[in-house]
């Protein structure tokens, strides 16, 4: 399981624009770089990131080999109701990780 860092406020006012920051530790190997023995390292990247708010997508991104290691993503959305944010990273070699955080809207 990869280490993640999430910056998500615990509370927000109804209609407030909320900023979310995510970072996941992942090498993001492009599949083009030779290793120490001269053979090309197999590709291993995170291909897709999705954030769901009460099971509805609020942010989605397709990632490609040019993305740096340990991808950092930041985005905003409008808080309308209390609920759960689910952060989903999917990648090569069956990689999948999900983290959740609660958001209370007053």
TrEMBL record:
Q: Name one Pfam family in it.
A: SoxZ
Q: What InterPro entries would the database entry show?
A: Ig-like_fold, Ig_E-set, SoxZ, SoxZ_dom
What are the Sulphur oxidation protein SoxZ domain coordinates in residue numbering?
9-100
* Source organism superkingdom: Bacteria
According to UniProt, the name of this protein is Thiosulfate oxidation carrier complex protein SoxZ
* Organism in which the protein naturally occurs: Roseicella aerolata
């Amino acid at each position: 399981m990869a280490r993640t860092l999430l910056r998500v406020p615990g509370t927000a006012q109804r209609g407030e624009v909320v900023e979310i920051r995510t970072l996941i530790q992942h090498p993001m190997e492009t599949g083009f770089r030779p290793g120490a023995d001269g053979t090309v390292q197999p590709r291993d990247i995170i291909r897709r990131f999705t954030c769901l708010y009460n099971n509805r997508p609020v942010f989605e991104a397709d990632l490609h080999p040019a993305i740096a290691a340990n991808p950092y993503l930041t985005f905003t959305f409008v808080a309308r109701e209390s609920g759960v944010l689910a952060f989903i990273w999917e990648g090569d070699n069956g990689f999948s990780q999900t983290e959740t955080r609660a958001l209370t809207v007053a």
